[in-house]
Amino acid sequence: MVMASVIQKIIPHYSFARWLLCSGSLQWYRHPTEEDLRLLAGKQRGKSKKDRKYNGHIENKPLTIPKDIDLHLETKSVTERDTIALHYFPEYQWLVDFTAAATVVYVVTEAYCSIMKPSQEMNISVVWCLLVLAFAVKILFSLTAHYFIVEDGGERSVCVTFGFFFFVKAMVILIVTESYLEFGLESGFSNFSESAMQFLEKQGLESRGPVSKLTFKLFLAVLCSLIGAFLTFPGLRLAQMHLDALNLATEKITQTLLHINFLAPLLMVLLWVKPITKDYIMNPPLGKESIPLMSEDTFDTMRLWIIILLCALRLAMMRSHLQAYLNLAQKCMDQMKKEAGRISTIDLQKMVARVFYYLCVIALQYVAPLVMVLHTTLLLKTLGNYSWGIYPESNSDTAVENNPLPSSLYSESPSVNGKMKVTVVQITMALGSLKNIFTPLLFRGLLSFLTWWIAACLFSTSLFGLFYHQYLTVA
């Protein structure tokens, strides 16, 4: 409730989302006015005798100018007033600010849990992380839905193609054994099925399990195909911004950071490939004797920290990518000057203005995958019962014992207070039984797979976009 009040009162005045855009480092190109284009073309405003008259209506003849006109676009820093006209700015501001607030709640909650070590309290940060993921998926869904509204666009075919591609890819990945990809899905699902069967047997119900393994993996494959379709155009756009940002970067350190930022999803993917990372760290080939460099719990903690550091790097490189996108206006102008013919002033103004008006759409395509990876990782730490310490203590995954109802509650005469006590105890036991069903072992497998899959989808689409913009567009 405290953080909700902060969001309501403070964020309208101090917004992290507005600071990312309006701190003065981003420069956008203003479209030229019609008068500026008339002066450059050496034309004056049309006379009445040059106007065409049809059915009593006077229509001005559209003004055209040569494409190779000597036009220099004026730059301006992005201000808060400029963001009012931007498409999807409210959605962008809400997602970024709510994510920042949820991250603060998570940090405070983790600090409280590490100090006080509560046993029976619910971790409220889980709810905040789930809300962040819900908002991110909802925004990506709304952005993808626009591609299906356009009738003549090819974006719809691209989304459908990548959706089917990722569905097949997910089915293949789910077949791979745990010796290559150590998600823990098999052990987590087996633990979930056994716990659910025991729970149903205690309730007097006969069941072979809540869901079969084939149905479970089919549901995951469908979910993965949807995530892949949502991340298609964010990945393609990231590849184009990466190439443009590399052309703008002059310092070696900036170029190195841009390369690391682009390869960050690949690094996340390799963290779960057992023969490449874990086997070499747990059993390094150092001669006849193999001495583990770290324990398995320490490796799991290091994996979480690496993902968070890569997410922080991607956030730090956000302005470089957005500036590379804004420079598309000047890039389009330079490309137009190489062409022959004429262009209307309205088309030229739309070509320049369109870049800035869709800035928040590009920002959402950049931020939403980052938010999904970050908060899926945070959920993996909390629900998977991991630790932030480099040398964490061994986590016990033992199930919580179900304490039977006190016999005194049944021996007493039925009264209102007695019935209320029985109800409270029954609810407590039901919640305890749910904890025994949805164990940390299940969440480790499921959230590890989802974190890995989001990074894999983003890298696959970015790699395809890099190949497309580097070779196919030039050809």
Describe the structure.
It is a single chain. It is built from 19 helices and six strands. It is mainly α. The chain has a two-stranded antiparallel sheet. A two-stranded antiparallel ribbon has the order 2-3.
Brief account:
The protein has 475 residues and is mainly α. The protein contains 19 helices and 6 strands.
Low-pLDDT segments: 395-413
Record the strand order, biggest sheet. Answer: 1-5
Overall shape: it is elongated
Strands, count: 6
Oligomerization state: single chain
Structural class based on helices, strands and sheet pairing? mainly alpha
**Helix-strand sequence:** HHEHEEEEHHHHHHHHHHHEHHHHH
Quote the beta fraction. Answer: under 5%
Rg, rounded, reads 28 Å
Our count of helices gives 19
Considering DSSP H and I runs of 4 or more, what fraction of the residues is helical? 55-70%
Average pLDDT score: 84
Sheet with most strands: 2 strands, antiparallel
* Distance linking N and C termini: 56 Å
Can you tag this structure with a few keywords?
elongated, mainly alpha, 475 residues, two-stranded antiparallel sheet, two-stranded antiparallel ribbon
Task: Map the helices and strands.
Elements: H1 2-9, H2 16-22, E1 27-30, H3 34-41, E2 52-54, E3 57-59, E4 64-66, E5 74-77, H4 89-116, H5 125-149, H6 155-175, H7 185-202, H8 213-230, H9 232-248, H10 252-270, H11 278-282, H12 296-316, H13 318-326, H14 328-337, E6 342-344, H15 345-357, H16 359-383, H17 407-411, H18 416-437, H19 440-472
